[in-house]
Design a protein that fits this description.
The complex is a heterodimer of chains A (about 800) and B (about 500). With about 800 residues, chain A is of the alpha+beta class. Chain A is built from 22 helices and 32 strands. Among the domains of chain B are: about 190 residues, Ubiquitin-like (UB roll); about 120 residues, 2-Layer Sandwich (Enolase-like, domain 1), CATH 3.30.390.50. In chain B, helix 12 runs antiparallel to helix 15 and helix 17 runs antiparallel to helix 18. Classes of the chains: A alpha+beta (about 800), B alpha+beta (about 500). The structure holds flavin-adenine dinucleotide and FE2/S2 (inorganic) cluster (2 copies). One FE2/S2 (inorganic) cluster binds next to loops of chain B.
């Protein structure tokens, strides 16, 4: 690799520093290389343009290959045998019949994999703790043969008592004991002792309540939400001697590679993970799954490539955003200022301790609004349900449902505009870390959103009292990380004809990563986007980066790509300077030309400069530098929504959404708007229809299909969605962008709930807002708390 | 026994795929989706669910969008199939013109169908895995409706789920392509009616026993007491969904969708006195193999079966309507069979045949319980007959879990003939109706005719008191339950709400 001598020396402390990265709501400190700062972009040619996706054509011709599409010779298909009971002990297991079935090449039983775990979970188990947990795996020539053979694995179970209800599990009446110390643990990442909640406190809430003019107490619940990626989870593993290739539908190839290396104790250099095209993740494909490890092992055993794609049914028996119950108590002054917030949350997290990572949702309450006295207590409770995972805006999406409805409720009680209440509690400092926000455009979001939505006017509109269709409007806000950070490395290779290869480890999970990174690269090099070819998400050919989660992808890899392009550009300038008879630092580039900055007609074509490269190509390398010290990096947004509620049937139609988001610089308005529109549609599902259901009496999932789980169809999505960016300058990284992957979903469901309240005067405390709940609430003239 | 080993035979079919004649041989247990992906390596067709719920596998079969996960490979015999890979070719054939190449990177020119191009231009794809299915549905939809409104596009894509985009930019692309394609069609010099090279459908040959081409053939198989195969594949939208769940083996099914005697919608002379209301001299006979889409397209039914039209319009999504049949809807005997509710409200009679005999059963007497009917093992449903009633008005209303691809929580069909107004009878307390049929779905173990409610409405004049009485009666007449889709209480209340709405819609209330 080409670089100056200094960077190749072993690392001295001067070149490195510690920096904080906020990933899915947790702060991680990483050591990273300091990188030379680049000047802010002032005028941009390519960045900021609504260019079509660089992979658009691959996707509309059907030639984009997803993991699910990869076929290799002699490939076998693996299918799992799953527990039909929510809690059981396997008394006996026999694979004889399955092994004898046509096409079958291998069966793996719990004893074959006993020494392995992935993400804290056994790969196969003799003691299933939820319905659908993996007991055995069968591999056969065709998928049908594997499915049929899986049914032939004979398992005798001794059924054990199970618990589905979190409150029951938490109490001493629970029929199941998960740990001697108790059935719950503190929710969230970090080490928590079993049997104790995780607690956050600042100020003195009791005093705060005393100082309040009014105190409101309400309980909200949210249902489990399932990612429903259109491409299910899956892996194809192929061994060539000791060299392993894995195709994985994943948000992070490096995470998968590291996990395989850890589980099987093989060197990273022996593992290649490829995840170029993938059909959606939404948090559920952050790392290796059980199927990854199982496919790898089965491939080793059978000496054949093994593909293990989950079925849609299996997908719905698996990961999800956990449910929550949120007990809120908020004290306010009559002018709307918050004096104290107390929040207790109960989060059922399945049967394994690792699920507790996602069993927390109070973070938003601690930071969204100015409040001196805050106390939160979070219980991650074990139940006989599958293990949850991250899902788009984990924690905040649940919490916003409660918090943003509380703010709305307070506004109505105090007879204030809900926006006014929010503005009065604006805060410029992250109250948890006491760091100022690097930029915060929330007030601008309220202003722009309200104006585009005609908030004032729509709020004043009155419904015809005799009519049965009532209109209502609502607003909700959001906060999320999305500042990104290291490690992320990028490589930009200029070829002798002036074409460019951009190599990045970042996954494009549908968000448009490939497109925006190409734009950044093209902008910095001063060449059109179509000169750039991106290769991404392949551990063998692309450099390291964190997975595409936590809305960090653009703000992590983007700056690395700009640095790499800058590095390459400088090297090319060194060559061009001689031809143009100036010093390298007197040069600029734009539109495919390299020119003398102060004398633009003195110029040469980019490709002519490239043609003169003695080595025939050159390689630029870029690293994501540290985040600025002492600043909080967050993305903000406000969403306005109009609904129509049928008071005779309880049906809700979402007529309009206006979303105003602060994500710093928008690299591509097309992909930006797509993220927001997609997020709002997913949020509409969370608000109105989606819910995973497990029968409390049997412990069996009963809505494990797209028909019964009901993600929004084209007829259920909001009829109209307008998206705006408030363009507040952000300087915490060299591209000026923050993430927008998760933020759009967070505010959506409470905005709808608030609009429903505005329309018909009843508040629905539990999602989804079904017609059944609305009718109950209208009948009783109050609130509906039960679920249907 | 396993599906694949049950019959070690293979099937051979002939079909056209993307304009090319193909002879294919494969296992009888594979679906069209598998044939396309695995035999022909057309991987643009995706599987998102395997149960007709997501549309990712949508292809065009004989001119209509279908879920290729719900078509068995052997059912494609003699068909013309188009996948995403063939769209540029299809457009060239339709317009008899070489495509204007669109550049990808200033080099590599690519011919594209207008819809493919607008999907790129409008930034309609994100992860992209739903997109081929989306485009195929759009192609089929624009063929039927070249100048759609936004709302019609939303409806036309109701069978395709996308989890990433929020659909808006997909609608944009369809709108844009539609206007381009119209502009093209309006310019006749460029437009030549190519694409008439349809394959002769329905090769009425017996192919390895998987396709029955005559009613007799199907009934013969049924008459064999322990036949390893059974005629049970019409549209496949119930049976192949069940097969995916491991219930039933497609390699043991026999396709009855090609049977001529089960198709057709025609007027016939009435065959007997009806059980309800007065007898009508003419009837309409609808073959049991008629799809929901064929119902929607029938002018006869549009005129004489308004409730049925409205019911068929909300079933599933377009792909389900293109395959699902009335016969399957009856035979499946779900309490939420929407077309059944509508047909029963018109006093439908079912024709049932076995090898030896034929019988007629009123729709009302057909169901014995959820999933249970009077059909015997050796019988097939041949046709549904409804009276051809002059001046019939009707409507169908339902509440579902979503607005597309949903199962009803409660639904009602009302069919009626209103007495001419002002002839005195309705004014002084007589009945408003010459004919009235009210049926409910999803609120009892089977779909049923609300006779008591009908009686209230027929006996008294339609004043507010009657309506109130009728609403109270229906609340007593339904027997709803709590399940994962709704609650008994909601269903009961809504039965009354929908009754009032339906009566208002047909003009039976002031
Ligand atoms: C996503 C999705 C959405 C759906 N939405 C709806 C909806 O909104 N409303 C609704 O009512 N239904 C809905 N359905 C169910 C289904 O489409 C209908 O029940 C349809 O009518 C079934 O017809 P088919 O021809 O596909 O039946 P098949 O699956 O081919 O057959 C079903 C059963 O009927 C038997 N059968 C078929 N024809 C005959 C015959 N002529 N004589 C005797 N037996 C016969 C078969 O043996 C089989 O047992 C939906 C299904 C799916 C997958
Ligand atoms: S794969 Fe979902 S409809 Fe066919
Ligand atoms: S683009 Fe990802 S599912 Fe539609």
């Amino acid at each position: 690799m080409v670089d100056d001598e200094k960077n190749q020396k072993p690392t001295g402390d001067q070149e490195y520093e510690d920096t904080v990265v906020n990933i899915e709501g947790r702060r991680v400190t990483v050591r990273t290389r300091k990188v030379p700062p680049l000047p802010d972009w002032t005028e941009t040619e390519i960045v900021g343009k609504a260019l079509p996706r660089v992979d658009g054509i691959d996707k509309i011709t059907g030639r984009a290959k997803y993991t699910y599409d990869i076929q290799v010779p002699y490939m076998l298909y693996a299918v799992a045998v799953r527990s039909p009971h929510p809690h059981a002990r396997v008394k006996n297991i026999s694979a004889d019949k399955a092994l004898a079935a046509p096409g079958v090449h291998g069966v793996m039983l719990p004893q074959d994999v006993a020494s392995y775990t992935t993400a804290g979970l056994p790969l196969l188990t003799l003691n299933p703790k939820y319905t659908g947990e993996e007991i055995a795996v069968v591999a056969a020539e065709t998928e049908l043969q594997a499915e049929d053979a899986a049914r032939l694995v004979k398992v005798e179970y001794e059924e054990l008592p199970f618990v589905m209800d979190a409150e029951l599990s938490k109490s001493d009446k629970s029929p199941v004991k998960f740990f001697p110390e108790g059935n719950f643990i503190g929710g969230g990442f970090g080490r928590h002792p079993i049997g104790k909640p995780s607690v956050y406190s600042r100020g003195d809430v009791e005093q705060g309540f005393k100082d309040s003019d009014q105190v409101f107490e309400e309980t909200f619940t949210t249902q489990p939400q399932q990612h429903s990626c259109m491409e299910v989870h899956g892996t194809l593993a192929q061994w060539d001697d000791d060299q392993l290739t894995v195709w994985e539908s994943t948000q992070g190839v490096y995470g998968v590679q590291e996990e395989i290396a850890r589980v099987f104790k093989i060197p990273l250099s022996s593992i290649r993970v490829i995840g170029t095209h993938m059909g959606g993740g939404f948090g559920s494909k952050g790392g290796a799954g059980k199927q990854t490890a199982l496919a790898v092992m089965m491939a080793k055993r059978t000496r054949r490539p093994v593909k293990m794609m989950l079925s849609r049914h299996e997908d719905y028996m698996g990961v999800y955003r956990p449910a929550s119950t949120q007990y809120f108590k908020i004290g306010v002054k009559n002018d709307g200022r918050l004096m104290a917030i107390q929040l207790k949350t109960i989060n059922p997290v399945g049967a394994y301790q690792s699920g507790a990572n996602w069993g927390s949702c109070a973070a938003m309450t601690t930071e969204m609004y100015a409040c001196p006295n805050v106390h939160t207590e979070e219980y991650a409770v074990f139940t006989n349900a599958p293990t949850p995972s991250a899902m788009r805006g984990p924690g905040n999406t649940q919490n916003a449902w409660g918090l943003e409805q509380m703010m709305d409720l307070i506004a109505y009680k105090l007879n204030l505009d809900p926006i006014e209440v929010r503005n009065r509690n604006d805060v410029k400092v992250d109250q948890v870390t006491n760091e100022p926000y690097a930029s915060k455009g929330l007030a601008e979001c309220y202003k722009m959103g309200a104006e585009k939505f005609s908030w004032e006017e729509k709020r004043r509109r009155r419904n015809d009292p005799a009519g049965t269709k009532k209109h209502g409007v609502g607003v909700a806000s959001q906060i999320w990380g999305g500042g990104g950070g290291p490690p992320a490395t990028a490589i930009v290779k200029i070829n002798q004809d002036g074409s460019v290869n951009l190599l990045t480890g970042a996954a494009d999970i549908g968000t448009g990563t490939r497109t925006v990174l190409s734009q950044i690269c093209a902008e910095e090099l001063g060449v059109p986007v179509n000169r750039i070819h991106v290769t991404n998400a392949d551990t063998e050919t692309t450099p390291y980066t964190l997975p595409s989660y936590g809305s960090i992808t653009l703000a992590s890899s983007g700056p690395a790509v700009r640095s790499a392009a800058n590095d390459a550009k400088k090297q090319l300038f060194d060559l061009a300077a001689g031809s143009l008879g100036v010093k390298p630092d007197e040069l600029s580039s734009k539109d495919g030309f390299i020119f003398v900055t102060r004398q633009p007609d003195k110029r040469m074509k980019f490709e002519s400069a490239a043609a003169g490269m003695p080595e025939r190509d050159l390689v630029g390398r870029g690293y994501r530098g540290p985040n600025p010290k002492g600043q909080a990096l967050n993305a903000f947004g406000a969403q306005f929504c109009e609904v129509e509620v049928d008071t005779q049937t309880g049906e809700v139609r979402v007529l309009k959404f206006v979303a105003a988001h602060d994500s710093g610089r928008v690299i591509n308005p097309h992909t930006f708007a797509s993220q927001v529109k997609g997020g709002i549609t997913m949020g509409t599902g969370y608000a109105l229809s989606e819910r995973r259901l497990i029968d409390g009496n049997t412990g069996i999932p009963v809505a494990a299909s797209m028909l019964e789980y009901r993600p929004p169809t084209s007829l259920d999505a909001p009829i109209d969605i307008e998206v705006y960016s408030v363009d507040v300058p952000y300087k915490a990284n060299n591209i000026g962008a923050k993430g927008v992957g998760e933020p759009p979903l967070i505010a959506t469901a409470p905005a709808i709930a608030n609009a429903v309240f505005n329309a018909v005067g009843v508040r629905i405390y539990s999602n989804p807002i079904t017609p059944e709940k609305i009718m109950l609430a209208l009948r009783d003239g109050k609130t509906a708390k039960q679920t249907a | 026994m396993t599906r694949s080993s049950a019959l070690s035979t293979t099937v051979r079919i002939q079909c056209h795929v993307n304009g090319e004649a193909r002879q294919l041989e494969f296992s009888p247990s594979v679906r069209l989706l598998d044939v396309l992906r695995e035999e022909l390596h057309l991987i643009g067709t995706k599987e998102g669910c395997g149960k007709g719920e997501c549309g990712a596998c949508t292809v065009i079969m004989d001119g209509r969008a279908v879920d290729s996960c719900l078509v068995m490979g052997y059912q494609a015999d003699g068909s013309e199939i188009w996948t995403i890979e063939g769209l540029p070719q299809m457009w060239e054939m339709q317009t008899a013109r070489k495509l204007h190449p669109v550049s990808r990177d200033d080099h590599e020119p690519l011919p594209l169908h207008p819809l493919q191009r607008t999907f790129v231009e409008c930034g309609s794809s994100q992860c992209g895995i739903c997109i081929p299915g989306m485009i195929m549905s759009s192609v089929a939809f624009l063929k039927e409706n070249p100048n759609p409104t936004r709302e019609e596009i939303r409806y036309g894509l109701g069978g395709n789920l996308c989890r990433c985009t929020g659909y808006v930019k997909i609608f944009d692309a369809v709108e844009k392509a539609a206007s381009e394609m119209r502009a093209f069609a309006q310019n006749p010099s460029q437009h030549a009616p190519a694409h008439q090279r349809r394959v002769n459908k329905a090769t009425p040959r017996r192919r390895d026993g998987f396709v029955a081409s005559t009613l007799k053939e199907a009934l013969k198989i049924l008459a064999i007491p322990d036949s390893p195969t059974r005629p049970q594949l019409a549209g496949g939208t119930d049976s192949l969904v069940r097969a995916k769940d491991g219930i039933g083996q497609p390699s043991r099914m026999v396709d009855i969708s090609r049977i001529k005697e089960l198709s057709g919608i025609k007027k016939i002379r009435a065959r007997g006195k009806r059980t309800s209301g007065s007898a009508y001299p003419q009837e309409i006979r609808i073959g049991a193999g008629t799809t929901f889409t064929e119902v929607l397209e029938s002018e006869l039914l549009q005129k004489y079966a308004p409730a049925l039209i409205e019911a068929c319009a909300v079933i599933g999504g377009p792909q389900i309507r293109n395959r699902g049949t009335l016969g399957g809807n009856f035979a499946n005997a779900s309490p939420a069979a929407d077309s059944v509710t509508a047909l029963m409200s018109m006093g439908a009679i079912l024709e049932i045949a076995s090898l030896k005999s034929c019988r007629q059963v009123p729709a009302e007497k057909f169901f014995l319980g959820p999933g249970k009917t009077v059909l015997k093992k050796n019988e097939l449903l041949v046709a549904v007959r409804i009276p051809k009633i002059p001046n019939l008005v009707g409507c169908y209303l339902r509440l579902g879990q979503r607005r597309a691809q949903a199962i009803s929580k409660v639904d009602v069909a009302v069919s009626a003939v209103l007495k001419p107004r002002g002839n005195g009878s309705s004014k002084n307390g007589g009945s408003l109706f010459d004919f009235l049929g009210i049926c409910y779905g999803s609120v009892a173990p089977t779909i049923f005719r609300a006779r008591a409610t009908e009686a209230v409405l027929k006996e008294q004049s339609p004043n507010p008191a009657t309506l109130k009485h009728a609403k109270e009666t229906i609340k007593k007449e339904v027997q709803p339950i709590d399940d994962i889709r709704s609650t008994a209480e909601y269903r009961r209340e809504m039965s009354a709400v929908l009754l009032e709405r339906a009566l208002r819609r047909i003009g039976a209330l002031a």
